[in-house]
Design goal:
This protein has helices at 15-19, 22-34, 48-51, 54-70, 84-93, 118-130, 145-162, 164-169, 181-189, 209-217, 222-237, 246-259, 275-289, 311-316, 355-372, 387-407, 419-428, 435-443, and strands at 3-5, 73-77, 108-112, 133-139, 171-175, 192-195, 264-269, 297-302, 321-330, 377-384. The protein is an alpha/beta fold and 445 residues long. The strands form two sheets. A five-stranded mixed sheet has the order 1-10-9-7-8, sandwiched between helices. Strands 3-2-4-5-6 form a five-stranded parallel sheet, with helices on both faces. The longest helix has 21 residues, at 387-407. Bound molecules: 5-phosphoarabinonic acid.
């Protein structure tokens, strides 16, 4: 089971100070579980893992099987919460060099509509000229500009490549049950569709079709992912006791640190495959907590790489940081450092050790150095990096995020701040309906 160790924060907030938050934690956790807090129409994710039935997996299997037969590549179109969950799991569980293997067993997952890079789209379409591919297009609102734009381009590309009828059978749309442009388009064209439940927001949607469909098509074990999450749901939705519930303890500890001026949390990994888990986590916490002039700023580093870039700041820069390390106990593979007769590189002292033993000492040495440098350290351990523990980890973060948002006294399930850039962009692009905004913004430039 996932384990959370917070003893390395006790020099900064005492164990007692954290335990004294029990009442506050219980009340926030109750609001979440009873649906009495702000944003309570977006709590579908809370009981989601435990409610997914085998029938639903079977339906997903059928879609996956159909598309797998046709595709060497799956293009997943989406942004934010409609992108990061699948990307995080894909990258965490894939062979790092799949794209260079001659004939991988499963379709490769690649992304579009998660930004607006023109060169990226050009290069992507050049690649797609040469490979068999299918598309999963995801947008809850069905109106987000970035994925809509990418879908317009790729729809045309696919139709030109395989013909209109075949294109329809290679597209799956995941969107709202009734509203939005994507729903309209999908119904008119006859694409297979899956629904994003109304009561699950984008950044909490990895265990809905948003994450499960692309992951199943690309051969990941979605049953294990959901099982891990369901086990964590059980562990975190019964008691809010700080001694028993790791999500409650995480929420309490990070808020205790925040109240003492530690305003930035760095999610640290020592496993390059976790880079996008950190990106997913950044969105989850950034969008949920950063509002009304409040919120812990979520940052991330990939160690040991970033010890050679960000390490200096973390050790000696402004003392407003704390770290949460995701520690993976066991690696999948075993490589030992070889002994060399001449020892010209001076590494014989490591001979016989696993590479991961060296990594673990980098992790421990860094934690101790950072604690000496006044950077409190939380440690989340998972036994292995597999679908089951990833499911646990993701649900753990979701549950803690809900509780933590309520501790900050914000609505963790809305994102009003995201609209500001959109309004300006539409005004600048002279979108119909934004005439007044266009006039006003033109005076500013
Ligand atoms: O978490 C969120 O709600 C957002 O990040 C959305 O997922 C993102 O903006 C994409 O929205 P949509 O799925 O409506 O295209």
């Amino acid at each position: 089971m996932l384990d959370l160790n917070v003893k390395n924060v006790f020099d900064f907030v005492s164990e007692n100070e954290i335990l004294e938050m029990q009442e506050e934690i219980s009340s926030c956790s109750e609001q979440l579980l009873n649906g009495t807090g702000a944003g309570n129409d977006y709590l579908g994710w809370v009981s989601l893992p435990g409610s997914i039935k085998e029938n639903f997996f079977k339906q997903i299997d059928r879609t996956a099987e159909r598309l797998r037969k046709k595709s060497k590549v799956l293009v997943v179109i989406g942004i934010g919460g409609s992108y990061l969950g699948a990307k995080a799991v894909n990258d965490a569980l894939s062979d790092s060099f799949d794209m260079f293997r001659n004939d991988p067993e499963d379709p490769l997952m690649i992304f579009a509509g998660h930004q607006i890079g023109e060169d990226y789209m050009h290069e992507l379409m050049q690649l797609l000229d040469q490979v068999d591919y299918s598309i999963v297009v995801i947008s809850k609102s069905g109106t987000t500009t970035e994925p809509a734009l990418a879908f317009r381009l790729l729809r045309e590309h696919l139709v030109n490549k395989v013909g209109a009828e075949e294109a329809v059978s290679r597209i799956v749309a995941i969107t709202d049950a009734n509203k939005g442009a994507l729903r309209k388009l999908a119904d008119r064209e006859g694409y297979e569709t899956y629904v994003i439940p109304d009561n699950v927001g984008g950044r909490f949607s990895v265990l809905t079709p948003v994450g499960l469909i692309p992951l199943a098509i690309c051969g990941f074990d979605i049953r294990e992912l959901v099982k891990g999450a369901a086990d964590m749901e059980q562990k975190t939705s019964g008691s809010a006791s700080l001694k028993e519930n790791p999500a409650a303890l995480y929420a309490a500890t990070r808020n205790a640190l925040y109240r003492k001026g530690k305003k930035i949390e760095i999610l640290v990994n020592y496993h390059p495959k976790l880079h996008y888990v950190a990106e997913w986590w950044k969105q989850l916490y950034g969008e949920s907590e950063g509002k009304e002039g409040k919120g812990i700023f979520p940052a991330a580093v990939d160690n040991s790489s970033d010890l050679h870039s960000m390490g200096q700041y973390i050790q000696e820069g402004e003392r407003i940081l704390f770290e949460t390390v995701i520690s993976v106990e066991e690696t999948e593979h075993d490589i030992k450092v070889p002994e060399e007769r001449e020892d010209l590189d001076g590494l014989n002292y490591l001979a016989g050790k696993k590479i991961d033993d060296v990594n673990k000492m980098a992790e421990l040495g860094t934690a101790l150095a950072h604690i000496d440098g006044e950077v409190p350290n939380l440690k989340i351990s998972i036994p292995k990096l597999n679908a089951y523990y990833l499911g646990q980890l993701m649900y753990f973060f979701e549950m803690a995020c809900g509780i933590s948002g309520y501790m900050l006294n914000v609505n963790p399930f809305n994102q009003p701040g995201v609209e500001a850039y959109k309004k300006n962009m539409f005004a600048l692009l002279e979108k119909p309906g934004f005439e007044e905004e266009t006039k006003n913004i033109k005076k500013r430039i």
